[in-house]
Amino acid sequence: MKQKKNTSYKAKIWVIILLLPCTITIYVLAIIGWQELQRIPVVQEWAESIQSVSTGKNKLDVPQEYISIYKKAEEQYDVPWTLLAAHHRIETKFSTMDPLLSPVGAEGHLQFMPCTFVGWSHPSCEGLGKGDIPDKDKVNPEIIAKYGGYGVDANGDGKADPYDMEDAIFSAANYLAASGAADGEIEKAIFNYNRSDKYVKDVLHFYYLYESQLDEIQAASIKKENKKDGL
Fold it and tell me: For the Transglycosylase SLT domain, which residue ranges apply (predicted)?
């Protein structure tokens, strides 16, 4: 009887030893799979919502320091500031990506292709719009006006720079307005910004989310201003 028990015990040990690599592999794959899933905005938002509920915090991921810029651009171009925030969130995760340069050549905080920023009538512009535009011309308002680009010198420093936050946000507002957002054609404008149905869906997700949080965002903004003023 004792020998049978020892044999059974040894068999269980061997099963555990044999299953251990499989278990570790499945665990690692599950982690990798979850990380990849979280790249999908809807899944990412769901995961962050769960985390915010567990910590008792509201999900307000729009950086307060950018809201005033969004709103100024909204005033000038009649494009919802929440739409600008949604684009900023999707394009560069509110400028936390490093570098702010995509593999295909999109530049800056709101990821403009050079030919869209400077103008598609530039002699070097074709294909995806990377062009062969000298750096000094990329930020020159006169060159941009000449070639019909959407780059804007928002802060009046003499340059329209996609790597400058104000210029980038105002330029995005300018482009979205010209694409229909100022007339309420939100989906059309988003699609024109990046011709992908998935892109439209992703931007709309955050746009509707921020629209639903307007009161909370406004309250957080006022609270921050009061704290800044020592009130």
Answer: 146-184
